[in-house]
Amino acid sequence: MSPRHAVDAVAADIRDHPITVDGTGLFNATRHIGLLCHLTSRMTADAEYQLAPNITGLPPADILGTAAGHLGRALAHYAQALTPLIALTTTGQHRLQRKLDSLDHHSRLLSHLDDAGRALTAARTSLEAPQPPAAPCAPAPAPSTALAPAARRRA
Fold first, then answer.
1. Which among 44, 57, 59, 105 is least buried, having the fewest CB atoms inside 10 angstroms?
2. Contact indicator for 19, 81 with CB cutoff of 8 Å
């Protein structure tokens, strides 16, 4: 699966399993975090391997690195969304103060989920950037065994 298709698959899973204010929503949030962790580590590894010569079929390392950065931002927002989500799912809303607090928790939860969605979209967009054709890699020059004159004097 290409990196772009992997981002699309995770985005589709996130759309199909929304975060709700109950135990299912908490399960879905941790599931989304797991998927984003896996995808972020994959993009990072792909970027690292792309730095080596003769790897084809992947976007350039800088594009993969940018996408991994956006995915990391989405992951951070999901992690930050856990606090208000847990507060909403574990706290009874019987007293007025708790009901007022729940408004703040809802607002923070939605804000983090929206920011995570924007980061995921940015990752997808960065992978859609036109990619120049790969230039053939020249072999690395062999290391010289002869010391330069200045190095000989120091030795």
1. 57
2. yes
